[in-house]
């Protein structure tokens, strides 16, 4: 073993030097770029990062046909994956990223986002007025909302005795639902039902409140089938679960016996947004891209295809009424949605949520 | 100028060892050194590292919350290893004594599950064990069920055992197969019954294989985070989940690095112990 020590030390030193270089490059607060509304877009090209299946498959083709530049689509599976790329320092090569509102807020706080030049995005007028009232970015100064929704209870109407109306139906389940319910594992949504039951904010940083929430979550843990962020819809369909904590767009309400309800104590308002990176060298094309997505012909693809609501008034008005009848949660109005509490980035206090989630998961 | 024989040997050494060594340096030692260097700095608010030295990442390791997770993982991995040994030893023993052609077929059968994607194999267990699955339907038909099979520690152990049993069987097989049959014959000629021969001759001589198999099963079991999530339903976290979450959810790279380092330390200790015990067993043999 001793023979290898010098190599280990040398590479440690090298790594250290590399790391130190990375740390030294600061994220300077550059002034917003002056953008040329008449720039020749065909000389630019775009890389966007988005969740798989979250935009029309032919989006690069329609962009090319209409705007004249090439678009490369990179896929990320979670907000955290793309955050890691965007915050690693230097140019990530990504021009436009799709991230949730609280992550857009965190990116902006680090000075990584280009302000939205509204004059280059005329289709912003298609958005509902409520879409400019989102707490992580009032007035859409650095982000443009793409989809929005809330979290509630998704259940099998044939397997529950009484339809749920309260988060308490999840946190203190009746005997017949024991081992037939799932909750989400991602920390903010894990805490949400308990926080709402306590009448607290989903963005609370009060430790006493979080402790109370933890006690409620620990109490229900033995009654849960599983913690599940991704396959709860399938569990409902198979009958393995009868009631699950779910995002509205993920509740398979196309099944006759599956329903979605927002509990009476209230819930959250989540938003997935488009942001333009300050490091982008194709900012005019990036704005043209965002503008293109806000076109009802593109944005209107979302509700019928992936069952998410979009904050685009013109696009929502063109949705087939039959679809709304089959999926009542799609018909939720912006005013109703805004009753939900917007998730914001909690900065240092997010550590408390991580600890709560670990404590709940580790408890046996 | 003709290079000297010594020079040629050196050149041959560089040509043969060089590529592998360079690969390991770049893709093993450098990342390892990065992980090592992360452990002493603060987490960045948005992920990454803030280059202010701190010792608190190591202090957190002593937090009962994380200690419990680590100990719970060690327990599950140990149970898995023990069961793998109990199942794997007779299997390896029987394969080693099969006639040549059957030996090859049996070995292929042991490795065969590796040809299917790991996630798909794990999902198959979910299909099998869930409350609406065939096992429970069968039990119900017999008036015995439904039984809570999935999302338990038992399901996690079953999944780990299934995934890593071949890693136990293969080193055991190669250790047992190598044994000189004349030793067994000598033991029999000297009057030992088969059981005595096994305990006094075969088992001690195959001990290096046992140790290798145990390390091969214990280490990946300890670090696995997919099986606890899928078969444990997220109701139990193992140290692998904890490490993954530090990097992919909590944005706490320094603490994640400390945890990773702790697992590496356990691994290195185990490998040393295995090498030491293996040498001892070899000497005695």
From TrEMBL, chain A:
Signal sequence segment: 1-19
Keywords: Periplasm, Signal, Transport
UniProt KW Signal keyword: yes
This protein's record includes keyword Signal: yes
Listed GO MF terms: polyamine binding
Matching Pfam families: SBP_bac_8
A biological process from GO: polyamine transport
Subcellular location: Periplasm
Main localization (coarse): periplasm
Domain of life where this protein originates: Bacteria
Alphabetical list of InterPro entries matching this protein: SBP, Sperm_putr-bd
PROSITE patterns the record matches: PROKAR_LIPOPROTEIN
GO cellular component: periplasmic space
Protein name (record): Spermidine/putrescine ABC transporter substrate-binding protein
Automatic annotation (TrEMBL), chain B:
GO biological process, one term: transmembrane transport
InterPro entries: MetI-like, MetI-like_sf
Organism: Planotetraspora thailandica
GO cellular component terms attached to this protein's record: plasma membrane
Domain ABC transmembrane type-1: 70-276
Record keywords, A-Z: Cell membrane, Membrane, Transmembrane, Transmembrane helix, Transport
Family membership: Belongs to the binding-protein-dependent transport system permease family. CysTW subfamily.
Membrane topology designation: Multi-pass membrane protein
Subcellular location: Cell membrane
One Pfam family here: BPD_transp_1
Gene3D superfamilies documented for this protein: MetI-like
Main location: membrane
Domain of life: Bacteria
Transmembrane segment boundaries: 21-41, 69-92, 104-129, 149-176, 197-219, 253-273
Protein name, UniProt field: Spermidine/putrescine ABC transporter permease
